[in-house]
Amino acid sequence: MGARGDPTIAGRGGSLPGVQKPGRPLLVLGFVSAVAQSVLLREAMALLGGSELAWGAVLATWLVGMAAGAALAVGRGRPEWGEAAPLLVMVAAGAGVLLLRAGPSLWNVAGGESLATLAVPWLWFGAVVPAAVTGGAGFTLLAARYHPGSGAGRAYAAEALGGLVGGTAFTFVLAPWGTAAVITLTTGLSVAALLASRRPVAAVVALGAAALASAPAGDTLASLTWTWSRRPGALGAWAETRSQRLEMAEGWPRALYADGRLLATWPDPWSTAPRAHLLMLLHPSPRRVLLVGGFADGTVDTVARHVVAVRGGRLDVVPTDPEMVEILPRWYGERFRDGIAWRGITLHRTDPVRVVEQGGPWDEIVLLDPDPSTLRANRTRTLEFFERCGGSLAPGGMLVVRVGVPDTYLGGAAGRLVAVLASNLRRAFPRLGGVPGENLFLVASEGDAAPVPPVETLVARWESRGLEDPVFRAEMIPLLLDPSRQKDLDRFVAGARAPPSTFAHPRAVPLAVAVAEGRGRAGLVRVVLGMESRSPAPLLAFPVALLAAAMLRRLGGGAPALETAVVVGASSMTWWLVLVGTWQAVSGSVYTEVGALSAAFMGGLWTGAAALGRRRAPERALPALLACGGLLSLGMAVVLVSWPPRGLIVLLLLAGGVLTGAAFPGIARLAGGDSPRLGGGRGFAADETGAALAALVVGLVAIPWAGFVNTVGTVAALDLALAALLIPRWHAWQRWGGQPGPDLFYPWSNESPGRRADDRSTPR
C-alpha cells in the first residue's frame, strides 16, 4: 500500500493530500452500482419471461460478487484506483446485458419460449459477477481515503446516497429510454466523473457523445436480441414499457412477444373467435362485460359483438400492459383501430385490481390474462381478487378464468394448479364448473343455475342473438363443449381440494412456473413438486438454530462481528425482496419502479449510516438496532396479511434501510477497529454475504413456498434472537477499552483489530 493509501495521514476533513472530497467518487460508485443492478435485474426478469425468481438468482450472484470484491481489496490496490471503478462497473454491466440477451441462443431455446430458472447458473455468474466484484472492490479502495474512526460508516453513507440518486434517476429519467440508452448514458456519466476534475471539456464531450449514441445503441441491441432469440422473421418494432419489453415481428399476421415469450398473434380469428363466442354464450344476456387480457390477440372485437347484440351494453377492457392501448393500434394498423373504435368500449390504462375495486356491476368478468407464473400475473388469481370480482358482479353474474393447461392432462403441477385455482373460486362463489379445451376455463357463478349451460341452450342463445361469423357456426358448439370431456373436468373440479392461494401466500406461482418450465428444460419443476406439499417450518427454523449454534460456539470469544454482519445483511435483503414483491403484487409493475424502490431503501441506508457514522462507539447500538429490526419484521408480518397501500410499502423500505445503515458503522468497528479500509471492507463483505444467502433462499424458495408473512416472521425471530444473545456479552468488550476484541474474520489471530500492525491505523 502506498503513502496515499495510508489512512493515518488523512487530514481532519477526512481526505488525503490532493483529494479534496473523498465522498465524491463513492457517490458516483453508488449511483452507477444502483443503475447497473437495476438494469441486470430487469434484464434477468425478461429472460425468464417476467418471472421474479430472477431476483433471487441475480441478487445472490450480485451480492456474492460485491462481497468477494470488497474482501479482495482489503489488503490490495491503491485507493486512487477506486476512481475507475464506476466506469468499469458500467462496462461490465453492458457486457452482462449482452450475455443475458444472448442467453436463448447460447442455450438453444426455441423462439417464443424462455429459459428455465435454475437451468443456467453459469449465465447469472458471467453476466453479474464482473460488475459486482468491481463495485465491491471500489468501495473498499475508496473507503481507505477516509480518516480513522468513523470513516467506514461515512463511506457507507456516501455510497448509499449515490445509490439513492441512481435508483431515482433510473426510474424517473433513464429507464423510459430503454436498456441500451441507460447503459450508454451512465457509462458516459462515469467517464465524465473520472475526467471532471482534470479535463472538464473532455468530460462534457463524453456526456454529449453518450447522449448521441444512445438511440442507435437501442436499435442495435433490439436487433441483436431478436436474432439471438431465434424468432422467425425480422424485427418490425420494439418498445420497453414500464412493465415489460415488447417486440413485434414484421409481416402478416402480426406476432407479438412480451419479455421474450410469444404473447399473441393478430389477426387470428380461427382460434380467438370460437373461444370468445363460446364464453359469451355462457351468460344469457351479457350487457356489461369486463375483459382482462384478450386485447393483443383481437378477442375484444368478438366479445364486443355480443355486447352490441344484447343492446345498450358496455365493454370494459383491461390489457395486460396499460401502454398497449397506445402501442398496438400504431403497430397493428387501421384494421385493428377500427375494431376497437366502438363507443361502448372503454380501454383502461390501469391494472385490473383497481378496475374491479372501482367499477361494476358486470354480468360477466372474463380473465384471459396469463397464468400466475409471476407475482404480477398472480394478482388476478388470488382468493382476495376472486372475492372482489364476486362483489362486482350483477345478480346472476359469472366469472370466467382461463387456465393454461389442457383438460386432457390434469396430473403433476398442472393438476395442482387447477386444484388451487378451483379451490380459490369455490371459496368465493357458490357454484363452479369448467369448459374443456387446450386451455381450459373455470366458470364460477353467483346464480342458482349451472355455470355451464347445456349445449342446446348455447345453440339457442347463438341463434337468438342473430350474429354471423364466417369462422363460427352453431354446429361447432358441441365440438367446443364436448359433453364427456366436460363431465370429466367437472368431476375433477368438484373433488379438487387445496389450500388457498392468497396475496400473502401465492401458492399458485411456483405451480404455474413449473407448468411453464415443464414445456422446455425443467429447472424448477422437480423442486416445486418435491416441496410444494410439505411444511416450510424446518426451512424457516434452520437459520435461527444455526445462529444459536454459532453464538454458543463463540461463548468465550470476542465480539461476534461475522454473525452480526451476516444477520443484518440477510435481514435487509429479506425486507427488500418481500417489500418489492409486495409492490409487484399490489401495483403490478417493478420493471421500471425497481430503481425507485431501491432508492427508497438506499435513502434509509444513507440516513442510518450518516446518523451513527460519527458516534464514538457505534457498536453499542447494535442490540437495540437488531431488536428494532425484529419489531419491524413483526410489523411487516401484520401489514402483509392483506393488500397494503403503496405509500406504506415505501415507508417500510425506508425504515428497513435506516436500520441496516445504522448497523453498518458498528459492524465495521467490530470487524476492523478504527481502520476504515479494514473494517469497511470486511464488514461490507460479511454484510453482502448474508444478503446473498437471503436473496438465494428467500427469492427462490421462501416467498413462493412459505409466503410473505412466514418469511418476515423468520427474520423477526432471527433478529430478536441475536439481540438477546448480544446483550449479556457486552461487558466482555469493555476489557479492550472500547475495542471489540479478537478479530473473528481471522479467528486464529489473538490481536485486537485496532492494534494489528498491517492495518496502519492509529491505535487507541
Features:
four-stranded antiparallel β-sheet; alpha/beta; 764 residues; 58% helix; Rossmann fold; disordered C terminus; Growth Hormone, Chain: A; disordered N terminus; single chain; globular; seven-stranded mixed β-sheet
Number of helices: 28
Strand content: 5-15%
Give the fraction of residues assigned to helices: 55-70%
Main β-sheet description:
7 strands, mixed
Provide an overview of this structure.
There is one protein chain. The protein is of the alpha/beta class and 764 residues long. It has two domains: 3-221 and 535-731 and 745-759, Growth Hormone, Chain: A (Up-down Bundle); 263-518, Vaccinia Virus protein VP39 (Rossmann fold, 3-Layer(aba) Sandwich), CATH 3.40.50.150. 58% of the residues lie in helices and 8% in strands. The chain is built from 28 helices and eleven strands. The protein has helices at 23-47, 53-72, 85-101, 103-106, 121-143, 151-174, 179-195, 200-228, 269-281, 299-309, 324-332, 334-339, 352-358, 375-378, 383-391, 412-428, 455-465, 477-480, 483-495, 508-518, 525-531, 537-553, 561-587, 594-612, 622-639, 646-672, 676-726, 730-733, and strands at 235-240, 245-249, 254-258, 261-266, 288-292, 314-318, 345-347, 362-367, 393-403, 431-435, 440-445. The strands form two sheets. A seven-stranded mixed sheet has the order 7-6-5-8-9-11-10, sandwiched between helices. Strands 1-2-3-4 form a four-stranded antiparallel sheet, with helices on one face. Helix 20 runs antiparallel to helix 21 (525-531). The radius of gyration is 28 Å and the shape is globular. The model is unreliable at 1-20 and 733-764 (pLDDT under 50).
